[in-house]
Amino acid sequence: MPRPGKNSYSDQKPPYSYISLTAMAIQNSADKMLPLSDIYKFIMDRFPYYRENTQRWQNSLRHNLSFNDCFIKIPRRPDQPGKGSFWALHPDCGDMFENGSFLRRRKRFKLLRSEHMACKSSPMMHYFHHHHHHHHPGGKLGTASGPHHHPAGPASTVGRLPHFQSYGGITCAQPGGFKHPFAIENIIGRDYKGVMASGLPLTSVMHHLGYPVPAQLSSVVNSMWPHVGMLSESMGGVPVPASSEYAPFSVSMKGLYHNANGQTLPAVPVPIKPTPSLGPMPGLTGLQSGPAQLCSPASMMEKGDPLEGKGNPLHPALLLS
DNA sequence: TAGTGTTTAGACGCCT
DNA sequence: AGGCGTCTAAACACTA
């Protein structure tokens, strides 16, 4: 049984899918969003295997970003020039992975067509188009590139909310607090909790984009995403739910409502996929099992769990520490 | 021009 | 067998 060394992955392919690797990179960032180049960088820094054949895997990675609904594109602010957009995790993608492990993906995160349509024509979009169109001189808000015929789901940015989708990955709650060895927290590093505790995925992105978030948004949120009503109401001043900590893969609810200075922030719409079986805020109990809709970071191992088949895999935490 | 983003297509393995 | 998820390749468009 080979024990992991610092460079254990140097000559072999890490047991993570590109989705996992991308999710790791994004989760590891302070703002929960990264430009493509930084995602590349993260992967190459952590996994020497990917320092070669860059064209191949980077093409695949880009494909995944575009193809998978769990990744959302966030436009750059005018004062942050550069190539490409930022990429973040869809707040509803958390449950993709089992036990918070990046080695196994529970299910594919996919927006429904109706959700794409709803997003596209949402009043929220109108709001932001109206108030913040200046952020997009190019006007390319998600390249609406015709009908989606991809069998596995629309890959274009149609229906994505270029501004709003940027909650930058409300991370995933892990029911029961179980820390899978391949969980993001262990994979990325010890400061993960600190990052998560201090970061405001939603608001940081809002700030990043320079958007004011008026209270009137609450009503819009309620009309668009009734299932997040609790969230919007809470953000309007109602105290946050008692169980506001969702370790290890979650963001404190406080983080959603308060900025770094402890100020209460207004509502921010979170286009969480409607899930009839869930409560107002999916996964807020922190004890959910089953079809939780919280963002559980990923664990992706599409080709079987190495814990089962190939023996105990190398512990990523040992690589990253 | 290089990097970025989208889309299509084929192949493979796993699961039901 | 069929569905699904992933990987790879490639073509193409857009943009800094």
Structure description:
The protein has twelve helices and three strands. It is mainly α. The chain is globular. It has a three-stranded antiparallel beta sheet with strand order 1-3-2. The longest helix has 14 residues. It is 31% helix and 3% strand. It has a domain of 98 residues: Winged helix-like DNA-binding domain superfamily/Winged helix DNA-binding domain (Arc Repressor Mutant, subunit A), CATH 1.10.10. Helix 1 crosses helix 2 and helix 9 packs antiparallel against helix 10. The N terminus and C terminus are likely disordered.
Task: List its salient traits.
DNA-binding; 321 residues; nucleus; mainly alpha; RNA polymerase II cis-regulatory region sequence-specific DNA binding; disordered N terminus; Arc Repressor Mutant, subunit A; DNA-binding transcription factor activity, RNA polymerase II-specific; disordered C terminus
Enumerate how many helices there are, as a single number.
12
**CATH topology grouping of the domain at 18-115:** Arc Repressor Mutant, subunit A
Structural class: mainly alpha
State the CATH architecture of the domain at 18-115: Orthogonal Bundle
Radius of gyration, whole Å: 19 Å
Helix content: 25-40%
Number of strands: 3
* Spans where pLDDT lies below 50 across 5 or more residues: 1-8, 117-181, 184-207, 211-321
Question: In the CATH hierarchy, what is the class of the domain at 18-115?
Answer: Mainly Alpha
* Shape, principal axes of CA atoms: globular
- Report the biggest beta sheet as strand number plus sense, adding barrel if it closes: 3 strands, antiparallel
Distance from first to last alpha carbon = 21 Å
Mean pLDDT: 50
H/E topology pattern? HEHHEEHHHHHHHHH
> Strand sequence of the main sheet, in spatial order?
1-3-2
Beta strand %: under 5%
